[in-house]
Amino acid sequence: MLTIASIAGLLFIALVAGLWLLKNVRTRDLQLVGAAARVETTLTPEGTVIVNGELWLAQSTNGETIPAQSFVRIVGIQDLSLLVEACH
């Protein structure tokens, strides 16, 4: 049988682990802002881009169509989508 102290200890460990993961996700997101990405599927204005070998959902900030294989700059993150602008 688990005692109250054991249960409390397990809950504390789970809380610390959850907060650590959340911090790492936020830090990683901040590192993406300013990075370059290659458009995988044409942004019309939504599509996908490749950043550091990873596929991400993305959308152009001004609604413009950006063709596949173009390069974009990440200017922000909204929900689970990168906000990008064409590199000129």
Structure explained in plain terms:
The protein has one helix and five strands, in the order αβββββ. The chain is of the alpha+beta class. A five-stranded mixed β-barrel has the order 1-2-3-5-4. A hairpin with a 2-residue loop joins strand 4 (71-78) and strand 5. It is rod-shaped.
Report the total helices: 1
Poorly predicted ranges:
none
Beta-strand level of the residues, as a percent range? Answer: 35-45%
Number of strands: 5
Given helix and strand content, the structural type is alpha+beta
Straight-line N-to-C gap: 65 Å
Tell me about the biggest sheet? 5 strands, mixed, barrel
Q: Which percent range fits the helix content? A: 25-40%
Which word captures the global form? rod-shaped
Oligomer: single chain
H/E element sequence: HEEEEE
What average pLDDT do the residues reach? 84
User: Radius of gyration, rounded?
Assistant: 19 Å
Strands in their spatial order, largest beta sheet: 1-2-3-5-4
Descriptive labels:
single chain, 88 residues, alpha+beta, rod-shaped
Quick summary of this structure?
With 88 residues, the protein is an alpha+beta fold. The protein is 33% helix and 38% strand.
Write the layout of secondary structure elements.
Blueprint: H1 4-32, E1 36-41, E2 46-51, E3 54-60, E4 71-78, E5 81-86
Parallel strand pairs: 3-5
Antiparallel strand pairs: 1-2, 1-4, 2-3, 4-5
